[in-house]
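Subject: Sanity check before I submit

Could someone independently write out the structure tokens for this chain? I want to compare against mine line by line before I put it in a report. The sequence has 46 residues.
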Amino acid sequence: MLRIKKLLRRTLNLRDDNAHICETYAMIKILNKLIGLGMPTMKTIV
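---
Independent answer below. Compare away.
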């Protein structure tokens, strides 16, 4: 996780404010997807 955060920690590259927002949302989406991949799936056994 630390490696991924270091990758995404760079400064925002785009100059437009709307582009900054889109770039931030893209980083958040990537982090959420990677966190979801690492979570185990649990099933209840009855």
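---
OP: Matches mine. For the report I'm noting this point. The chain has one domain: 2-38.
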